[in-house]
Each structure stands twice: as C-alpha cells, then as structure tokens.
Amino acid sequence: MTTLDDSVLDKEIEEMKLKVAEMENQLSEQKNEINTQLEEECSEDSRSVYVGQVDYTATPQELHEHFQSCGTVKRVTILCDKYTGHPKGYAYLEFEDEEAILKAVELNGSEFKGRQLKVHPKRVNQPGFGKGAKKGWKGGKGGYKGLKGMMDYSSWYSPYSMKGKGRGKGKGKFGY
Hints:
By secondary structure, the chain is of the alpha+beta class. The protein contains three helices and six strands. It is 33% helix and 17% strand. Strands 2-3-1-6 form a four-stranded antiparallel β-sheet. The chain has a two-stranded antiparallel sheet with strand order 4-5. The termini are far apart.
C-alpha cells in the first residue's frame, strides 16, 4: 500500500470514530430522558393513593372535596369499564406532596355516600414480579391425559376404552 491509501483509510477511520461518538452521545441523551420520565412517574406514584369502595354515582369533584382536608389534591381519577363506561368503584388521587398521603390513609374506613372507603397508598406493579415460573403446556378441557396420576395400570389401561373422560366420550345417543 502507498501512503496515499493509508491517508484515505485514516480519514475514513476518523470519520467512523466521529459517527460512533455522535451516536453514543445521542444514546446517552435518550437514556437521560427515559430516566427523568421514570423518576417523574415514580414521584407521581409516591404522591398517590388508592381509594376503594367508591360509590358508583360519585364524581371527581365530590372525592376532591372529601379529601381536601388532607392536602392539595392535584388529580382525581375514577376508573371506568372500557366497554360500558360505568365506574368500577375505585379511584386514584394524586396529591401535591407526600405528607398528604399519610393524612389520606387516616380516612380509611370513613363514610362517603353511605359506603366505607378503603384508602391505601398506591401500589406500583413491578414487571415480572409474582408471575412465577412458566409451567409449560397444561392442555385444554378433557381429552387424553396420558398415564399421569395413574398408578401402574399400564398393563391393562387403554386411553380409548375409558368412557366419560374428556369431551364427547360419554354414553352417547343409544347408551353404549
């Protein structure tokens, strides 16, 4: 190779290094944005309470008034069924500060429109928590289940001769 080829290659390598550095900067900016979004969501959750046993005719304004003594209520969300649009009977309240949550939890058991409210700090689902191990295919309704659960009846057991197991293996039309 000549020195001309080497200089061209060096320029290309430098350009690639600059592109990689630019891509790394963009990636770090995106990570920072995601982290700030997550922190904002966590701070919202730490300032929110779950309110259960809410009357179905309750409005967000009425809940706002009921919890106004705890602190400044930022948002009231009454969850509704997505098909019918009717309230599900529980709500989430977001407060301005975290101290208001302690006061709101003290209203647990208070009466609102003839019902006792259940007030708890908002729980955040953690991805993958409580799922348990995958246990594989469990089969459908009925059908042949093999020798699973049977004692050692393999010498006389035939899965096709047992009536009443699975779907459509009953007595049939003429009782056979």
